Amino acid sequence: MDWIYSPTDPLLETIAGSIIAFVLIILLTRIIGLRSFAKFTVYDFAVTIAVGSIISSVLTSSTSVVQGFIAIGALLGLTYVFSALQKKYKPFDNLISNDPVLLMDGSKMLYDNLKSAKVQEGQVVAKLREANVLNYDQIVAVVLESTGDISVLHRASSNDDHFEERLLQGVVKRK
């Protein structure tokens, strides 16, 4: 029955670590800002996963609370520094972030872009269904965002002609 409960389990340490983790995450998020756990880039997502992994290590006592939270503080601090550098220096932004890529231009699937982005046509079609696209004529554009998400821009009906081109600003439109 040790796999359910063992008298040697550090239960009080786990509770204390959970409380400390909760408070520290709130403090760091308030200091660094909401960007701490936003998913603007792939590295933002990776940092979020890493922070979760570190918290897990702390709560299971395989890493000390101090060591774990220094690691979390360092990762979130680096996220803050990288975001400031991205904003200030365009070459640094280009180095860190991927440009969004156009996968569909209207109803036309852009197979070269799909291939370079390593996205399958079926994945795009699944996103079209998710976005409640009922007809290919409704599609204005499908974009693989720099976060790895796929955005579907579509009209409410095939008669709706209003679309602001600014929404595709910065999107790589190779064909």
TrEMBL record:
Residue span, YetF C-terminal domain: 88-157
Location of this chain's protein in the cell: Cell membrane
Domain of life: Bacteria
Transmembrane regions listed in the UniProt entry: 15-33, 40-59, 65-85
Membrane topology: Multi-pass membrane protein
Coiled coil regions, renumbered to chain: none
Primary subcellular site in the record, as a coarse category: membrane
Family membership: Belongs to the UPF0702 family.
Protein name, UniProt field: Putative membrane protein
Organism this protein belongs to: Owenweeksia hongkongensis (strain DSM 17368 / CIP 108786 / JCM 12287 / NRRL B-23963 / UST20020801)
